[in-house]
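Let's practice the habit of predicting before peeking. Look at the sequence and jot down your guess about where helices and strands might fall. Then scroll down.
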Amino acid sequence: MRVLVIGNGGREHALCVFISKSPICDKLFCIPGSDVIQEMAQCYKIDPMNNHDILNYCKEHKINFVVVGPELPLSNGIVDRLSEEKITVFGPNKTSSQLESSKIFMKNICKKHNIPTAKYSTFDNEKEALNFLDKVDFPTVIKADGLAAGKGVVIVKSKNEATETIKNIMSKRIFGTSGKKIIIEEFLEGEEISFFALVDTNGFILPLTTAQDHKKIGEGDTGLNTGGMGAYSPVPFIKQSQINDFVTKFVKPIINDL
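Done guessing? Here is the structure:
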């Protein structure tokens, strides 16, 4: 099997390490790859957002299987484009990718199916968002709707801080077009948990494991969010009964909606 991995980060390096060890992988490719990835895969400097060129590369190199790592190519519809050409791809299509690429899309699905989530309001108008701050209890959470490399969530402790954050996101566009819309969300304090599962187009769900990500840039969980400063897995205080609840209350309703 000839396998292509799309991406150039640590996640894609890990994928390439293990895919390269598979007995069914005859040759491994990576777009765009990196210096360390090229030690085990043939890398080619194509823009991961260029669906046309990636498709042509797959055809030219007779790629059998594609694994897409980053959120941006997924949100750009690379899975849809390759699937149209009968190339097998691991990754969500453009619609399903909105679970990651649009926080508003995700929150609205939660609301629709009574999936537990923090109380929230959405805004595409800066003035309306600023006026809403008079109704907010602090601390509160302000989120850019779109992808922001893990940095689009800000916990604010006062109205002044919230005002500045909203203006930075919606007027100054510090996150680009990802800040055209925002969420103002109830602040919830507690342990952060990520839960992973594999799913297919028929609704099959294979629970994998849990992880705890630590996103703050500073020591002692201080400073702004990042894409992640470190994580560990599995989370030791999560019980099997809770994992069953994750599948029943979160994963199944979302997959059924999509």
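How did you do? The chain has a mean pLDDT of 95.
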